[in-house]
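New to this. Please check this fold:
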Amino acid sequence: MHVYTVYICAYTPYITMPSSIPAAAKTDTADRILAAARDILDRDGLAEVAMRRVAERVGITPMAIYRHYTDRASLLNAIANQGFQELADRMHARPLNGGVETRLAQLGETFVEFALQLPNLYELMFLAPRKGARFYPRDFKAGRSPTFSPSVKLLKEAMQTGELRHDDPVEIAFEISALSHGLIVLYRGGRVGLSARKFRILYRRSFRRYIHGLRP
């Protein structure tokens, strides 16, 4: 760790010097770095996302990557943010209909589909320790999570109309999220002896059981 710190500090004057490279070119390089890192993550897993390997994939020197991402943590946060936006887009694109139980299950289906299709990205977003990760309850109560807030909104509406008994919608949404994460982690860890189709049925059934307990 000490060697790394000295190494970066030694190059700081070079990294922070004004550059004549056009802003558009810098943005393009940053995007290519992000795309390369994401591809490595999706194919090989979180442990394989290394700055040197990403730089080689993009065709730049290892030190050049630090002009766009200050360290590995900032690069991983950028990938995670991209993942959260993708998941949020999927959630918003999915038509929700029916009662609160059905609509929450529909959101859950979007979530589990994402987790099973992109398991390494899911791990980075929700399981891997990250300095840029959101924390409960501070960030969730403030509405800073684009993938958490839709469930809070549904719960609030259902409580206002009497479909669900009055309670803390943020806390309930967090508990539902914990149920969802728990089932997915157990399935991905090989602790659930069901096919993907049967696991999704169990996933939906678990949601319905939980929501039934919130009815008046």
User: Anything to note?
Assistant: The CA atoms of residues 7 and 185 lie 38 Å apart.
